[in-house]
């Protein structure tokens, strides 16, 4: 997927998440936008995403969603490596 993903270069998607490392909290379903359960509910976390930028557009800022349907783009042609398909490494 490089250089479309994983780089801050002209022509790359340049998706960025800004994290506030001072946030300490216990995760709730409301934080995770989960329907009725999540394996992460109740976990204590250190750091929380405060702003998400998608291809140069702010789509989330301090909990407010500005993005919408159609903001994402499917990247075709991705394949799972043979090493992963062979099974667990341990």
Give the helix/strand layout.
Layout: E1 16-26, H1 29-32, E2 44-54, E3 57-61, E4 64-65, H2 82-85
Antiparallel strand pairs: 1-2, 2-3, 3-4
User: What is the fourth-level CATH superfamily?
Assistant: Urease, subunit C, domain 1
Report the top-level CATH class: Mainly Beta
Quickly count the helices: 2
Strand content: 25-35%
The residue-averaged pLDDT reads: 84
Morphology: extended
Number of domains: 1
How is this structure best described in words?
The chain has 90 residues and is mainly beta. The protein has one domain: Urease, subunit C, domain 1. The protein has 2 helices and 4 strands. A 4-stranded antiparallel β-sheet has the order 1-2-3-4, with no helix packed on it. β2 and β3 form a beta hairpin. The longest helix has 4 residues. The two termini are 27 Å apart. 0% of the residues are buried.
């Amino acid at each position: 997927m490089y250089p479309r993903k994983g780089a801050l270069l002209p022509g790359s998607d340049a998706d960025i998440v800004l994290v506030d490392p001072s946030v300490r909290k216990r995760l709730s379903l409301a934080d995770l936008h989960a329907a009725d359960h999540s394996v992460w509910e109740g976990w204590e976390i250190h750091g929380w995403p405060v702003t998400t930028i998608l291809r140069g557009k702010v789509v989330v800022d301090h909990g407010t969603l500005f993005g919408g349907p159609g903001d994402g783009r499917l990247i075709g042609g991705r394949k799972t490596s043979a090493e992963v398909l062979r099974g667990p490494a341990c």
